[in-house]
Amino acid sequence: MSEEIKNFLYLNRRAPYGTIYAWESLEVVLIGAAFDQKVSLAFVDDGVFQIVKGQKTEQIGMKNFSPTYSALGDYDVNQLYVERESLEERGLTVDDLMHLTWEDEDEDWAEKDSIRVVSRAEMAEIITQQDVVFSF
Q1: CATH number where 60 lies
Q2: Tens digit of each residue's pLDDT (9 = 90 or more) over 58-68
Q3: Number of domains composing the chain
Q4: Which residues of the chain form beta strands (DSSP E)?
Q5: What is the pLDDT of residues 103-124, one digit of tens each?
Q6: Which residues of 112-131 are buried (b: 16+ CB within 10 A; e: fewer)?
Q7: Fewer CB within 10 Å of terminal CB in the chain, N or C?
Q8: For residues 23 and 102, what is the distance between their CA atoms, to the nearest angstrom?
Q9: How far is CA 3 from CA 6, 13, 127, in A?
């Protein structure tokens, strides 16, 4: 009998536009969450740009899909890890990121932050704790 897979981590390394990787990652995350998989996301390297607030895409002729990240909490995707060093290397802080939240039904629907900024060492540990890691 095979062991049941429990934890899926989607590791986002690429900028949001210019390739389809970021959009495909988001689509797969939403599909997995809709089927009750335990899903979390990690943003490292240029992947941190995927959740920067105020994205404007008119000049590049691509649809801005960043508002879709605000739906993650509705799918019980509430563990979003952002690597601190990746933010710093790109001149960003947590204040540059979208305010992504979820509602905790166990605490009378209290709104809680989904984003957790972690060090590179903590990110490595989070990755090792997963059953499956998808890299985009």
Answers
A1: 3.40.1260.10
A2: 888 888 999 99
A3: 1
A4: 7-12, 38-43, 80-83, 101-104, 110-113, 115-118, 132-135
A5: 999 999 999 999 999 999 999 9
A6: eebbebbeeeebeebeeebe
A7: N
A8: 21
A9: 9, 29, 19
